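Worked example 3. Consider a protein that binds adenosine-5'-triphosphate.
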Amino acid sequence: MGVSNISIKIKGLTKRFGKVTAVDRVDLVIQKGEFLVLLGPSGCGKTTLLRCLAGLEEPNEGKIVIGENTVFFARRGISVPPGQRQVGMVFQSYALWPHMTAYENIAFGLKLKKTPREKIPLRVAQVLRDLGMKGLEDRYPFELSGGQQQRIALARLLATKPPVFLMDEPLSNLDARLRLDMRSELKRLHHDSGATTVYVTHDQTEALTMATRVAVMNEGRIQQVGAPDEIYQKPVKLFVAEFIGMPRINLLSAHPVSTDQRLWFQVGDFRLPAAWLPSQEEVFLAIRPEDISILLHPEPDTVEFKVYGVLPAGPEVFVHVVRGDVRLVVRETRQLELAMDQRIWVTIDPSAINLYNKASGQLMSNGEAG
Ligand SMILES: Nc1ncnc2c1ncn2[C@@H]1O[C@H](COP(=O)(O)OP(=O)(O)OP(=O)(O)O)[C@@H](O)[C@H]1O
Ligand SMILES: [Mg+2]
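Given these inputs, the predicted complex is written out as structure tokens:
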């Protein structure tokens, strides 16, 4: 299968419901063949944005171009109906036809797309096999579990091979293990079909594992668009830094100081070595739990803390440490024998610290005022 040659361009898109602005001046270009994940907290406008792309909501302002076609343009009064947009969508609340079996549900989707009658059985069998649903073709939706129904809804979409896939939390009803398997299947199917995909989820792990790029949304606005690694390592806003990562990123309020011919951040009653100093008097330091290490004995440039709690999680352990009002979460992959209230010393790689402007919440970079 070749890569879909359909890109999606969204410009100044706004959708209001009464006083609620669900989608707020969104600009986004989705490249052909991309797997773009829209990620954000509940109510941030993900479903609404996807429905605008599908033509199921009429935006108030802006423009949407799918491939060569301008499918929506508020100023010119252009709004192409859903059926003519070359997109296939699976909804958050998947709706199967209750009076049709699993097979018939998928076959009906193909008939609607005018697939030649003789090609239908093979295509249905193939997609049922891809999704691990073989043997369930004769069941009615009420005879299937929620997770199985969700996979049939997905199969109905995948069978028709639209050049653009729009998926709204298609794995939300699956149990944890099946969800992992299905992520891998969907990634594979995307690789094989090359269809331009927009995938909505509020699950950051799902976003980071599946996306070629992630668009993080909050309150109707796109906060950052980037490769998963970029979103994780260099969140451009405090909101993104805090939203991405489990457990949460450590945030410390700090004053830059330079003494003893060295650069430091003063945090409460202790100092951390700094790689560079911003011009602001007060900033937020954001530090991922894996960028902090625990030492059992003091060394230069370490800070004494006390063990507050130890949370083992299989191959890794999350250690909560405290010093006065400051609490940090540390991710350790070493097997450390730690007791409650034990004295330990932490060390933080200065280059792993991201700095945020306290007023604007924007990432600051060396050489910029921020
Ligand atoms: N038909 C509607 N009428 C009025 N308000 C709506 C309608 N649809 C959505 N909204 C509002 O628009 C905002 C965005 O909703 P949307 O469903 O797009 O969020 P979401 O990001 O998909 O959330 P979730 O993760 O919970 O599915 C919310 O405040 C919601 O209440
Ligand atoms: Mg939604």
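Take a moment to read the result before moving on. The chain has a mean pLDDT of 93. Helices lie at 46-54, 102-112, 120-130, 146-159, 176-193, 204-210, 228-233, 238-243.
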